[in-house]
Structure to design on (315 residues):
């Protein structure tokens, strides 16, 4: 069908009006948030915390020196280009402040948005960007993929500190409380009757994490979480290599290097678990006692992390 010039012009005008009505309108900043530079938590509380190191530690779960050390490593990733419509841009220091407050308390994004006088989606984006920057910058420095030499040193530490030879780490999992994700059914519902993801960690003899694996379904057992973890896959594919078996000190027994875990884990060539508790002879009871003592630091470390990080919920 051919249209006249007038009909074509009318059709274009009508189409332009429809598109204009559908085009989203940028919302104005809420009057409360406009006062962020005056009443926001960063503006009026942070300077006072810097003047009191004990209160600073209580608030952030770290010292000012640690705070600024982390900031120095990630500041270049948090610095944004300024624009003329940003009268008070969110600086890297404030972004780290918001993120650490979230990690140390589990406070909701909505609650943080009110405290810091900014939008909920802004807080969510800041936390996501900042934790990604922290991992990208600090993981290669403080949690690199362990080498065979690293495992040999860890085994020596376990032998000297805990009197348990040929151990390259202690393994355990911790449930991190979350809100039930959408359309997840019971995948995240654990035996303790709450929704969670699993943080699984391997630690050395000095309470330091060697590897972490985060995101296991709450309903999985510890053994199931390990078998589905990246750590297990790396071991099976030999992307992570343990030292070659050696003689146990003061014996003529050659033994492999292993990780220690509790009875919820499967017994594997590279994973040692305690004996079942029924009908144990003195030798087996002694082994279980030594095994439990060597693993004690992992339980202490896990509880310390939970106290420092409370628990996390998604909102």
């Amino acid at each position: 069908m051919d249209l006249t010039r007038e009909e074509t012009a009318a059709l274009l005008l009508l189409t332009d009006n429809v598109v204009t009505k559908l085009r989203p309108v940028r919302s104005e900043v809420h009057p409360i948030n406009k006062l962020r530079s005056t009443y926001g938590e960063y503006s009026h509380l942070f300077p006072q915390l810097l003047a009191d190191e004990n209160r600073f530690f209580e608030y952030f779960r770290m010292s000012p020196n640690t705070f600024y050390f982390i900031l120095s490593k990630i500041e270049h990733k948090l610095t944004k280009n300024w624009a003329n419509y940003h009268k008070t841009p969110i600086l890297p220091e404030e972004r780290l402040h918001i993120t650490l407050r979230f990690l140390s308390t589990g406070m909701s994004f909505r609650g943080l948005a009110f405290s810091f006088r900014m939008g909920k989606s802004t807080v969510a984006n800041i936390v996501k960007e900042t934790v990604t920057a922290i991992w990208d910058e600090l993981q290669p420095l403080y949690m690199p993929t362990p080498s065979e030499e690293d495992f040999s040193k860890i085994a020596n530490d376990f032998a000297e500190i805990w009197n348990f030879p040929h151990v390259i780490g202690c393994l355990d999992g911790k449930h991190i409380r979350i809100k039930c994700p959408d359309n997840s059914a019971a995948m995240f519902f654990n035996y303790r009757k709450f929704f969670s993801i699993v943080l699984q960690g391997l630690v050395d003899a000095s309470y330091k994490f060697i590897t972490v694996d985060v995101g296991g379904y709450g309903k999985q057992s510890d053994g199931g979480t390990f078998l589905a973890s990246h750590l297990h896959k790396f071991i099976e594919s030999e992307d992570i290599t343990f030292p070659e078996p050696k003689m146990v000190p003061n014996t003529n027994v050659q033994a492999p290097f292993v990780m220690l875990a509790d009875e919820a884990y499967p017994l594997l060539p590279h994973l040692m678990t305690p004996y079942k508790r029924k009908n144990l002879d003195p030798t087996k009871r002694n082994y279980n006692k030594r095994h439990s003592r060597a693993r004690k630091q992992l339980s202490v470390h896990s509880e310390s992390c939970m106290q420092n990080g409370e628990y996390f919920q998604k909102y």
Q: What stands out?
A: The first strand starts at residue 167 and ends at 177.
